[in-house]
Amino acid sequence: MAEVRVTVDGVNYADEVEPRMLLVQYLRERLGKTGTLIGCDTSNCGACTVHLNGQSVKSCSVLAVQADGGEVLTIEGLARDGQLHPVQAAFNECHGLQCGYCTPGMIMAAVDLLGDNPDPDEGEVREGIEGNLCRCTGYQNIVRSVQRAAQMMKPGASAPTETPAPVAGD
Amino acid sequence: MIPAKFDYVRPSSVEEAVSALQQGGDDAKILAGGQSLLPVLRLRLAAPSVVIDLGGIPELRQISEDGDRIAIGAMAPHHDVLRDDLVKQHVSLLSQATATVADPQVRHRGTLGGALAHADPAGDLGAVALALDAEFVIAGSSGTRTVPAAEFFVDYFTTAIGEGEILTQVRFPKYTGWSTHYEKFNRTAQAWSMVAVAAALRVEGGSIAEARIGLTNMGTTPIRATGVEQALVGQPATADSVRAAAEHATEGTAAPSDADAAADYREHLAKVLTGRAVLAAAG
Amino acid sequence: MTATADTTALEFGKARVRKEDARLITGRTRYTDAITPPGTLHVAVVRSPLAHARITGIDTAEAKRAPGVHGVYTVSDLGADEVGMPCAWPITPDQKAPQRPVLAKDTVHFAGEGVAVVVARSAAEAKDAADLVEVDYDPLDPVLDMEAALAEGATLVHPDLGTNESATWVFDSGEAGTGGSVADAIAAAEADPDQVVVRRRFRQQRLVPAFMEPRSCVVDPTGEQIVIWSATQVPHILRTMTTVTLGIPESKLRVIAPDVGGGFGGKIGVLPEEMMTVLLARKLGRPVKWTETRSECMLTAHHGRDQIQDLTITAKKDGTITGLDVRLLADMGAYLGLVGPGVPVLGAFMFNAIYKIPAYRFQTTNVFTTKTLTDAYRGAGRPEATFGVERIIDELAVELGREPLELREQNWIKHEEFPFTTVCGLTYDSGNYEQATARAKELFDYDALRREQAERRERGDKVQLGIGISTFTEMCGLAPSRVLGSLAYGAGGWEAASIRMLATGKVEVITGASAHGQGHETAFSQIVADKLGVPFEDVEILHGDTASSPKGLDTYGSRSLVVGGIAITMAADKVIEKAKKIAAHLLEADEADIEFSAGQFTVRGTDKGKAIQEIAFAAFMAHDYPEGMEPSLDSDAVYDPENFSFPHGTHLAAMEVDTETGRVNLRHYVCVDDIGNVVNPLIAEGQVHGGLAQGIAQALFEEANYDDQGTLVNGTFVDYTLPSAADLPSFTTEIVSTPATSNPLGVKGVGEAGTIASTPAIVNGVLDAVRHLGVADIQMPTTSQRVWRAIQEAQGRSTQETPIDTHSPGAGLGSIDPNNPQGEVQ
After folding, report:
1. C660 in contact with chain B, both atoms CB, cutoff 8 A
2. Is A58 in the same domain as A17?
3. Which of A43, A59, A102 to mutate to test the interface with B (most CBs of B within 10 A)?
4. What per-residue confidence (pLDDT) applies to C7?
5. CA distances from C498 to A52, C576, C619 (A)
6. Average pLDDT over residues C710-728
7. Of B39, B118, B258, the CB nearest to C806
8. Interface test with chain A among C16, C671, C701, C724, by most A beta carbons within 10 Å
9. Cβ–Cβ of C27/A129 closer than 8 Å?
């Protein structure tokens, strides 16, 4: 067993884990954070994407012990004070999801992308989310959602429904 | 899927890591970024008894200028390499190739040293290191040694890193002002290179003064296209002369055959893409 | 957008954002794997690495001793020797159907088939122990090629059946009296210099549905009812089939499909793993969970398509089609799936498509091989048919030297000819192919692209342009029960709905159509809000749990709106009828004088009235209601459709082909789909987008390949190449509406349309780009290598075989072949 101390969605945890435990298993099985999903075993699908120390990672390809001392943000911690993150709001507004299984990873990847590039063109969005597979949407409305979120996050832009929460990692 | 059980150590210095590796013996496995190792462990294609995580050694992540070289710590993530101004300025070919590696999440975790030590012939960075004559700094119990790229890649998934040794740094000569391009051909964005060509040129007065060309996935290791390089030198960077030189691209290759491409198709691609890479680099 | 003149005041036609999104974008989801009742044990299945082998020994001793292990079982240990998984579609009376066991008994018939099962405290411990189970196999020859499988002396997948042919099903318009004889048409064409005969063989490659949520099942046996949570499209069918399969009374079973992460037909089956989990939970008296890995899913979840199509079309030289003959070989895999044998039959009525074909014959021969079984995958039978006919129409156009769109128009059913009874005997209720095509051409700028294509050819450009066409229709909205009966399908095609008017005027709608991403909760709420005149927000849709929605036939075949939605409108009509009686009573008026509009019951010619919420409250209080009536507005309805739904559309693809490398680039895709009236354009458009991506992926990217030993070569997302966002463009989609006349909402199905239409458009476009170089055909997926090779061969340069039986590098595995790992990973 190995010790892991980690902050997840603002809460501190200290746990003993088997070294082989993946970060995504730790989130789901130990912390009950089942909003982060597992879609493959080869790091293709990106459904398990979370932020580790402010960067998007595939939590199926990180050991829980590697997150020791780190800070994790999952889809469940993205909305703040009951207000959706603009990327979440934009996915709803632009119908950027159907079955919802790729959605947590897709949103976390998109938040990271917009942190790096606040105003991506369509090609940049498509490349920025190439590590996340979706089988329902054909990606078109996901791309639209990310670009809409970028608009909403511009300083001075009017929010769609509520005041957006600050971008995680900023 | 869940990996088989293993022990885990996280050394805080290279010396500790080397000694852990020697204690671990044959069954020990180095964990760098883990973006290839973790899927392999999850599918239980490998079951090491001990995993040695290099993530606790901060100096292995550093990128610095060292005289006429850019020294990149083996644990520098692709994302850091990609954004580093020194690399952009002096080793632009590495920036260009790194941008094509996997996806943003993988580039956040995956490392330059990990990718090169893994030595997958379809990996993009080996051809760059080879074309640019990078040096590999390898630490072992008796200190460090430096291996030139031409001797680093030995075979399919095999490098000059010996048992009990760890790759700590990759040093690239500066190619300031060179024209570079990485031409990658893959089936889908997530697929690895079917064939790719790394090209660096020094152009003087409209003609090619020096050329460095590396090929990805045209053999069991990255391959230096010396025939093309020689044919390019002294030539104007025109479509006709470049295409003629690119005909040498298959010299010394041993292209694999897989579902994406049989060897003859890879050979054809190597020539076409070499021409395109050189012309794109020459602008 | 809809044919209804003014919809501004209505929910119907409004592009509402989805109400179900709130939980999905915040991670407040309950996919099956998230459900872990206290004390849950976990399952790992030991699977065969071989395609065909006799099991000579299974040693579970070491696994049983491993930490955390509660038990290790073979099929006999489970007492399940006699249990066979159901096949609901005997397409012929003499169809050969082998028993499909829960776990292989003495022989494994495909790689990935379960052999033993481990139950342990954790999933990790179960897997650790599964690795310790020793199975000895005596290998048998795999059966991989359909034609070889049917040849004399072939190795038999199931020797006791005496053949690898499961069934042959035929439709002949001459015999059915719905058209002429194709044999006569072909003979006439062959004898007539003014006619042509075009024969082609097409292949529908094997596909993996690849829903994003791997399958999972949790069974809790501790209550009075056994509760089964499953990642399934078909909770109601699963309940009934669990009874049929295991003999547990239906009343003792509650099935819940919680959040389900996509299906596309891939979750329509009743699984050995589901039955195994029920058996284990009952045996151990504790909740048991099975969740598959992606690798297991690729190997064992049913695949789709996999047909060899031999088509013959005859036509006069003026372009008039005179006959179409279709002969299919359809690969069933090792066993028959729940509806697998019927998948090709669903295509039988669609090869004639939108065309007036006077003579038609269809024959499918279903064949067993030692591969993963096949069953429904988005479109199920209809994509195969549409591909066949849209490809051969292009071939006919080439043969006749005709513009392919004009040739189609010459032969298609004109809009004034609806309703039109086809050569298969189906009656298409409505459609307007001229309208959809004219709009698609306009959006595409068809003439300009044709000019550009000519210029590029003229110049001999390295990158050539091709224009791909697909003018499709499909039959969906499965299905009129009597038709299903005539096809020997083992169920009806109706759908059920209930509406409960709560005391406070809120509305609960119960539907048997269980969504897994389609947006039912929003679309059904819109329909009910309009029908009952209540706010959208006041409507709650309940589905996917047999305790709350006991009756239903679930979601597949683009049926939810056109069957399930109509059931809901019928239930709403009944609510209104009941409410009218109470309103008349309370308003002291004659029922005939009560009018209902926008949620208000009013007495004609007066200003007296009551809102539906007031009536609901009055019914709840029950202090004052008409004699002879029950104090309730709640209503049930079951709708059995009279006809299928026939959406159609025109799809145009601009394909660029780099003739140097063979690289194919989809530059522009335009589709105009006629799906009748539209409840929610946002959702409908999303369905089209997703459908297009799957159909395009069949044409360009996807193929499940087996090596000569019967091993699935690309059994991970590494080498089964699904497109990412970076591999697809944005599509130009538009909807036109010729309302359906076969249902009261005028709606048509949309879920499968994009998939059905797009595959031939892409392949026709790729061929159109390189046909002038002498290329006549390229198999799907049209990879760069296949395109390059086709050009080389057309130019008389010899090339190597295209190997399909090796791993290609990608993702975390890179060049490491999971089926054949070498020294690199040790």
Report:
1. yes
2. yes
3. A43
4. 39
5. 47, 13, 17
6. 95
7. B258
8. C724
9. no
Pick the CATH number of C494-639 from 3.90.79.10, 3.30.365.10, 3.60.21.10, 2.40.30.10: 3.30.365.10
Q: Give residue limits of the domains in chain B.
A: 7-54, 63-173, 179-282
The angle subtended at Cα C265 by Cα C263 and Cα C266, nearest 5°, is: 65
Question: pLDDT tens, C158-217?
Answer: 999 999 999 999 999 999 999 999 999 999 999 999 999 999 999 999 999 999 999 999
A165 touches chain C (CB under 8 A): no
**Are A91 and C717 in contact (CB < 8 Å)?**
no
Count residue pairs from A and B with Cβ separation < 8 A: 90
> Per-domain residue ranges for chain C?
494-639
Q: Is the CB of residue A145 less than 8 Å away from at least one CB of chain C?
A: no
Residue A110 falls inside a structural domain: yes
Residues of B in contact with C824 (CB under 8 A): 156-158
Which member of A28, A93, A139 has the closest CB to residue C728? A139
Query: A57 to chain C, minimum CA–CA distance in Å?
Result: 13
Domain match, A117 and A68 both? no
**Model pLDDT for residues C587-623, shown as the tens digit of each residue:** 999 999 999 999 999 999 999 999 999 999 999 999 9
At residue B175 the predicted structure's pLDDT band, cuts being 50, 70 and 90, is very high
The pLDDT value given to residue C313: 98
- Indicate whether A15 and A65 sit together in one domain: yes
The encoded tokens of residue A146 equal 């990310």
Query: Which chains share 3+ C-beta pairs under 8 angstroms with A?
Result: B, C
Is residue A162 assigned to a domain? no
How far apart are the C-alpha atoms of B147 and C417, rounded to whole Å?
Answer: 79
Chain A hits for C295, Cβ within 8 Å: 41
Residue B3 to residue B7: CA distance in whole angstroms: 12
Helix (H) or strand (E) holding B173: strand B166-173
Fold of the domain built from segment(s) B179-282: Enolase-like; domain 1 (3.30.390)
pLDDT, average across residues C695-708: 97
On chain C, the residues whose CB falls within 8 A of the CB of B102 are 811
Closest-approach residue (CA) in chain B for C721: B188
Answer whether C707's CB lies under 8 Å from C713's CB.
yes
Q: Which amino acid is located at C207 in the chain?
A: L
Residue C584 to residues C591, C596, C608, C613, C616, Cα–Cα distance (Å): 5, 11, 11, 15, 14
Which residue in C716, C721, C806 is closest to B191 by CB distance? Answer: C721
Which residue from C270, C292, C639 is spatially nearest to C255, judged by alpha carbons?
C270
Flag whether A170 is in a domain. Answer: no
User: What tokens appear for C738 in the block?
Assistant: 């010729």
Q: What is the CATH number of the domain that holds A144?
A: 1.10.150.120
Write the CATH number of the domain with boundaries B63-173.
Answer: 3.30.465.10
Closest CA to A45 of C112, C294, C25, C714: C294
A164 has pLDDT over 60: no
Q: CATH fold of B7-54, please?
A: 3.30.43
pTM value? 0.97
User: In total, how many domains does chain A have?
Assistant: 2
Q: Could you report the per-residue pLDDT of C504-542, keeping only the tens digit for each? A: 999 999 999 989 999 999 999 999 999 999 999 999 999
Closest partner residue to A130 (CB to CB) among B39, B43, B103 is B103
* C683: three-class secondary structure by DSSP: helix
Q: What is the mean pLDDT of residues B14-34?
A: 95
- Which CATH number belongs to the domain containing residue A30 in this structure? 3.10.20.30
Cα B277 to Cα B267: distance, rounded to the nearest angstrom: 15
Are A91 and A33 members of one domain? no
Q: What's the whole-number mean pLDDT along residues B143-156?
A: 97
Chain C residues whose beta carbon lies within 8 Å of the beta carbon of residue B273: 661
Regarding whether A102 and A43 lie in a shared domain, the answer is no
Whole-number Å distance between alpha carbons of C655 and C503: 59
Q: How confident is the model at residue B134 (pLDDT cuts 50, 70, 90)?
A: very high
**Residues of the domain holding A145:** 86-153
